[in-house]
């Protein structure tokens, strides 16, 4: 809608002036109450961070102003100076590690113990508070070398004992560095706040379960997998772990395995004289295998491990059981049992629909969480705890589920696994991780005793599932869309008839639109404008990109793009409510070129269309700049953002 | 979403006035809306202040309307048609707006006079943002059509 029309509508309404507005607003209670609410909205951590950032910037400005003798000396080429920065004593500490599917990613920090500055021959030492500097994140490489210029050098050797940076500058370094230090510190503090999600979005295993030095061990194993092939059968599997376990515990192993164990100097229990590398033991091999391949049922089966007689001839019937216990223990610590639970749900060995309403959804999780909490509270002194009693059948089904799950995996993370299943098999909603979401479900009387959101919070924090689900990668989309179209053409997969009416048409496009809005707004099938049959179909059967989640943003976009291609819809030929050109067309009087580049990456692609849809669905979360708003309004001129703009970008990409 | 009472006061007043057709009563309801809003802290924690503000105002107006129906009719009480003539000043566009249903008029008022975001409107009317966007588009198309017809 253009400004002229908007103004005309606004001026069409005439309202009387209020009489008592000022008196009302002047009431101290009103103002103070609002101020208090305003303050409450910002967590302390954000205010502290903002203050830190402001302080850092102020420091930079202060240093710049106080040490600058004359403004023109900002030119650093005038005066030679040497700055040598010696960092750390070689202590390398991986702080962030994400492991899964055989991939490793690490972030390395180097302790900063001193910064020495030498200028014009007169040594001047500047004390720098010991801190940490992030040198690498998510990289497999172990060393980095970079050059700033012809006469400068930056060398990082994380394996060596020192981390040294040398370069020559020609400036009054304090001014120069304080300015940049201030800017860096500000960026670092603010940037730190902007990383609530771990970089391990693709990994199922939470990186927090890793030991601090395990990334190096696993990298070593990955690079030399022959080391781990103890029985020399050409593959590394659970039998190798078992052989090492048996050798370490004086059980009989094959000659080949024993020879290799001896060659590597694998230590035996209580064998103090052995100087084998500490990392080469059965525990680390089991953990590496679990991370590399995930837990499998055969890992926990006694039948998988033949009885081992002892070398000494003593009767030792417990080797297999002890090993299985060790595998269970490491699986539990790594939270590696989830694939087993997920597979059991798929195979209907466990029923997660604990409230027996025929649908596995958030209500089942809440019931399970409440029952589990009640059970644990009943076993301890629960103080003033008032249990929210669930129906007897629900309690019984929860107990059955718990028993079956514990038989599958002895992990003590069943609540977490329940949440993971929910997120894997139903659409994710960000509200699940908010306590307020449960206020309308759990009666107020009991709500303070239950915090079901915490498991969602944990998962969002450790795996970044929210970003994973709602971050749109154009390249990834193009790849899976091409594949999907080929599969449909070859008859391997069905076309996206998501509304189940038997035809691929605009109504499928509309349904996907509505569904996308529903999941972002936390509406379920009963609250949606879509028929429950259609809604549930999208939830369950529309995983077009085969990522395990039906109805995510990729599935929505695949549906819409496919419909546009199939129908060959264009501006001029479309009719009804989609005949956009005729819609308010004569009132548009602004003739400006709008690129469609909403995310400002210089290209108009699917990510821009998705960003528009995200903005329409949740403008509070997906905020657009003025420039982005301008560029996004490609359908019609200055009529505000709507789904037509996203549709127009999609059509443009298809040359329709 | 942060709500500034100073900014919203006039807008809630317009909404109440549109609903209740009585200036003094509308202002009373406006102030009552804000007092209830400020007294209930959980409204703020849920991040939907504007939505709840309009919900409270709407509920108060509905209550007031029902009470008003049980009162005796006063002589100065105007009917709806006169009232619409009073607030819709632009004759041509006003005629077009009057042809809209009550709900559509209210949506136009909220969206373009009170500048309520589409997200909040969709929550108020229980529809998706996409549907609300389309509804507004259709309303405007009809407005334009009627507007053009009356001009021609």
From TrEMBL, chain A:
<feature type="domain" description="Dockerin">
    <location>
        <begin position="591"/>
        <end position="656"/>
    </location>
</feature>
<keyword id="KW-0472">Membrane</keyword>
<dbReference type="GO" id="GO:0000272">
    <property type="term" value="P:polysaccharide catabolic process"/>
</dbReference>
<dbReference type="InterPro" id="IPR036439">
    <property type="entry name" value="Dockerin_dom_sf"/>
</dbReference>
<keyword id="KW-1133">Transmembrane helix</keyword>
<dbReference type="InterPro" id="IPR016134">
    <property type="entry name" value="Dockerin_dom"/>
</dbReference>
<dbReference type="InterPro" id="IPR002105">
    <property type="entry name" value="Dockerin_1_rpt"/>
</dbReference>
<protein>
    <submittedName>
        <fullName>Dockerin type I repeat-containing protein</fullName>
    </submittedName>
</protein>
<dbReference type="Pfam" id="PF00404">
    <property type="entry name" value="Dockerin_1"/>
</dbReference>
<dbReference type="GO" id="GO:0004553">
    <property type="term" value="F:hydrolase activity, hydrolyzing O-glycosyl compounds"/>
</dbReference>
<feature type="transmembrane region" description="Helical">
    <location>
        <begin position="44"/>
        <end position="65"/>
    </location>
</feature>
<keyword id="KW-0812">Transmembrane</keyword>
From TrEMBL, chain B:
<dbReference type="GO" id="GO:0006352">
    <property type="term" value="P:DNA-templated transcription initiation"/>
</dbReference>
<dbReference type="InterPro" id="IPR014284">
    <property type="entry name" value="RNA_pol_sigma-70_dom"/>
</dbReference>
<dbReference type="InterPro" id="IPR007627">
    <property type="entry name" value="RNA_pol_sigma70_r2"/>
</dbReference>
<dbReference type="InterPro" id="IPR007630">
    <property type="entry name" value="RNA_pol_sigma70_r4"/>
</dbReference>
<dbReference type="Pfam" id="PF04545">
    <property type="entry name" value="Sigma70_r4"/>
</dbReference>
<keyword id="KW-0238">DNA-binding</keyword>
<comment type="similarity">
    <text>Belongs to the sigma-70 factor family. ECF subfamily.</text>
</comment>
<dbReference type="GO" id="GO:0003677">
    <property type="term" value="F:DNA binding"/>
</dbReference>
<keyword id="KW-0805">Transcription regulation</keyword>
<protein>
    <submittedName>
        <fullName>RNA polymerase sigma-70 factor, ECF subfamily</fullName>
    </submittedName>
</protein>
<keyword id="KW-0804">Transcription</keyword>
<dbReference type="InterPro" id="IPR013325">
    <property type="entry name" value="RNA_pol_sigma_r2"/>
</dbReference>
<dbReference type="InterPro" id="IPR036388">
    <property type="entry name" value="WH-like_DNA-bd_sf"/>
</dbReference>
<feature type="domain" description="RNA polymerase sigma-70 region 2">
    <location>
        <begin position="9"/>
        <end position="69"/>
    </location>
</feature>
<keyword id="KW-0731">Sigma factor</keyword>
<feature type="domain" description="RNA polymerase sigma-70 region 4">
    <location>
        <begin position="96"/>
        <end position="145"/>
    </location>
</feature>
<dbReference type="InterPro" id="IPR039425">
    <property type="entry name" value="RNA_pol_sigma-70-like"/>
</dbReference>
<dbReference type="InterPro" id="IPR013324">
    <property type="entry name" value="RNA_pol_sigma_r3/r4-like"/>
</dbReference>
<dbReference type="GO" id="GO:0016987">
    <property type="term" value="F:sigma factor activity"/>
</dbReference>
<dbReference type="Pfam" id="PF04542">
    <property type="entry name" value="Sigma70_r2"/>
</dbReference>
């Amino acid at each position: 809608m253009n400004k002229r029309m908007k103004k005309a509508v606004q001026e069409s309404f005439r309202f009387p002036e209020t009489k008592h507005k000022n008196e009302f607003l002047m009431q101290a209670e009103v103002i103070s109450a609002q101020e208090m609410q305003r303050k409450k909205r910002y967590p302390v951590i954000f205010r502290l961070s903002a203050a830190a950032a402001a302080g850092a910037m102020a420091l930079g400005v202060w240093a710049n102003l106080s040490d600058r003798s004359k403004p023109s000396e900002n030119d650093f080429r005038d005066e030679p100076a040497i700055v040598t920065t010696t960092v750390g004593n070689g202590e390398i500490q991986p702080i962030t590690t994400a492991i899964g599917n055989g991939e490793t990613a690490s972030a390395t920090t180097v302790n900063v113990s001193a910064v020495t500055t030498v200028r014009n021959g007169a040594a001047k030492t500047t004390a720098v508070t010991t801190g940490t500097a992030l040198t690498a994140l998510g990289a497999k490489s172990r060393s980095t070398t970079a050059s700033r210029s012809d006469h400068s050098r930056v060398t990082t050797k994380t394996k060596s004992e020192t981390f040294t940076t040398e370069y020559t500058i020609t400036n009054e370094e304090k001014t120069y560095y304080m300015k940049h230090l201030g800017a860096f510190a500000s960026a670092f503090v603010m940037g730190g706040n902007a990383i609530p999600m771990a970089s391990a979005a693709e990994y199922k295993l939470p990186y927090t379960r890793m030991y601090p030095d395990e990334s190096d061990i696993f990298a070593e194993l990955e690079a030399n997998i022959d080391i781990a092939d103890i029985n020399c059968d050409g593959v590394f599997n659970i039998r190798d772990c078992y052989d090492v376990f048996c050798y370490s515990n004086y059980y009989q192993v094959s000659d080949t395995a024993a020879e290799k164990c001896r060659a590597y100097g694998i230590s035996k229990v209580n064998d103090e004289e052995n100087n084998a590398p500490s990392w080469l033991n059965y525990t680390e091999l089991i953990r590496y295998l679990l991370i590399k391949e995930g837990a499998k049922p055969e890992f926990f089966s006694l039948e998988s491990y033949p009885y081992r007689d002892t070398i000494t001839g003593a009767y030792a019937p417990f080797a297999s059981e002890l090993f299985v216990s060790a595998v269970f223990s490491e699986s539990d610590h790594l939270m590696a049992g989830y694939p087993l639970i997920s597979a059991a749900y798929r195979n209907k060995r466990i029923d997660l629909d604990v409230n027996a309403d025929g649908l596995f959804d958030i209500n089942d999780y809440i019931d399970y969480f409440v029952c589990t909490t009640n059970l644990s509270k009943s076993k301890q002194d629960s103080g003033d705890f008032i249990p929210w009693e669930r129906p007897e059948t629900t309690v019984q089904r929860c107990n059955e589920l718990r028993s079956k799950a514990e038989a599958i995996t002895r992990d003590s993370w069943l609540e977490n696994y329940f949440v993971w299943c929910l997120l894997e098999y139903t659409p994710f909603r960000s509200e699940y991780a908010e306590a307020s979401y449960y206020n309308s479900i759990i009666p107020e009387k009991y709500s303070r005793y239950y915090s079901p959101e915490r498991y969602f919070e944990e998962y969002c924090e450790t795996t970044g599932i929210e970003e994973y689900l709602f971050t749109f990668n154009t390249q990834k989309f193009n790849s899976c869309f091409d594949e999907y179209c080929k599969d449909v053409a070859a008859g391997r997969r069905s076309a996206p008839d998501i509304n189940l009416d038997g035809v691929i048409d605009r109504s499928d496009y509309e349904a996907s639109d509505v569904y996308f809005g529903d999941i972002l707004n936390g509406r379920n099938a009963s609250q949606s404008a879509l028929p429950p049959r259609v809604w549930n179909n999208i939830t369950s059967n529309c995983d077009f990109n085969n990522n395990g989640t039906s109805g995510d943003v990729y599935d929505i976009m695949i549906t819409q793009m496919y419909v546009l291609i199939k129908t060959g819809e264009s501006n001029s030929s479309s009719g009804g409510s989609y005949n956009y050109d005729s819609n308010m067309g004569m009132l548009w009087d602004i003739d400006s070129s709008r690129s469609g580049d909403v995310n400002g990456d210089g290209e108009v692609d699917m990510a821009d269309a998705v960003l528009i849809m995200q903005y329409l669905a949740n403008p509070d979360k997906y905020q657009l700049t003025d420039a982005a708003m301008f560029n996004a309004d490609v359908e019609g001129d200055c009529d505000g953002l709507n789904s037509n703009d996203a549709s127009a970008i999609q059509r443009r990409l298809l040359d329709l | 979403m942060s709500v500034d009472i100073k900014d919203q006061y006039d807008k809630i007043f317009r909404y109440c006035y549109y609903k209740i057709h009585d200036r003094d009563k509308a202002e009373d309801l406006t102030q009552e809306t804000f007092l209830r809003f400020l007294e209930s802290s959980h409204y703020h924690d849920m991040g939907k202040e504007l939505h709840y503000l309009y919900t409270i105002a709407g509920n108060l107006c509905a209550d007031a309307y029902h009470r008003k129906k049980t009162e005796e009719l006063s002589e100065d009480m105007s009917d709806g048609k006169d009232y619409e003539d009073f607030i819709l000043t632009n004759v041509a566009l006003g005629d077009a707006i009057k042809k809209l249903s009550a709900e559509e008029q209210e949506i136009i008022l909220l969206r373009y006079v009170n500048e309520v975001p589409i997200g909040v409107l969709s929550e108020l009317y229980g529809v998706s943002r996409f549907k609300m966007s389309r509804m507004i588009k259709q309303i405007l198309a009809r407005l334009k059509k009627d507007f053009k017809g009356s001009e021609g």
